[in-house]
Design goal:
Helix 1 runs antiparallel to helix 2. The N and C termini lie far apart (97 Å). By secondary structure, this protein is mostly helical. The protein is elongated. It has a two-stranded antiparallel sheet.
């Protein structure tokens, strides 16, 4: 069987990986990849970002080296005439599988990576469906609800007089009704004149409620 197309594809991918690794090596030539003479006056978050990016590049380089080793192994198999033969069963590896994965060493059924991890994050044991929170109090499910849900698992109670968790028995909490339609600009609150009112459903419900209160007072 003619495996020349796969050999050409593997050699092309090998050249691409070698070029990428050479570029990464030149980038890591200096310990001060940030270009700064000193890290003393830098914010820790900036240094942390640079460290994260460098660790990410190192991890990607390690992945490329593993792929390069697989390519070299496949090219050696082609030279020895053993390419395309399953190392476990001895069967011919289907062309479709080699087209998708030229470095395949086994048929699909004999691949060691067949089982999927069944373990789930432990957080899912305590997470609850939040669909009941949508449009609560005339607003959508937002960061306020997220905070309340997370804070409810604290060992130390954070509930105090006027706290957001001081709500009904389900600990859903509350916000002031006008927060659903009062807004400010990017600078935040700079005075009553800068507060804008959004004529939405929350505004209408609030105004209707205030009218009812005034009518009850008059009676």
């Amino acid at each position: 069987m003619d495996y020349k197309p796969f050999q050409d594809q593997l050699n092309q991918r090998k050249r691409e990986i070698m070029d990428t690794l050479d570029a990464n090596k030149r980038g890591f030539a200096s310990d001060r990849v940030s270009g700064e003479l000193s890290q003393y006056d830098n914010h820790p978050a900036d240094s942390g970002t640079e460290l994260f990016e460098r660790e990410k590049d190192l991890a990607l380089s390690a992945h490329l080296k593993e792929e390069l080793a697989d390519i070299d192994y496949a090219l050696n198999q082609i030279e020895q005439g053993t390419y395309g033969v399953c190392e476990v069963t001895g069967q011919k590896i289907p062309m479709e599988r080699l087209e998708a994965l030229p470095t395949a060493r086994t048929i699909k059924e004999a691949s060691p990576h067949q089982s999927l991890a069944k373990d789930r994050p432990v957080e899912e044991d305590v997470m609850e469906e939040s669909d009941t929170g949508f449009h609560r109090h005339g607003r959508g499910y937002d960061e306020q609800d997220t905070y309340q849900q997370v804070a409810s698992f604290n060992d130390t109670s954070m509930t105090y007089e006027g706290a957001s968790l001081e709500g009904d028995e389900n600990q859903e909490g509350f916000v002031e009704a006008y927060e659903s339609f009062a807004s400010t600009g990017i600078e935040g609150y700079t005075g009553d004149d800068d507060v804008k009112l959004l004529r939405n459903r929350g505004y209408k419900e609030y105004m209707d409620e205030q009218e009812d209160i005034e009518e009850n007072k008059d009676e």
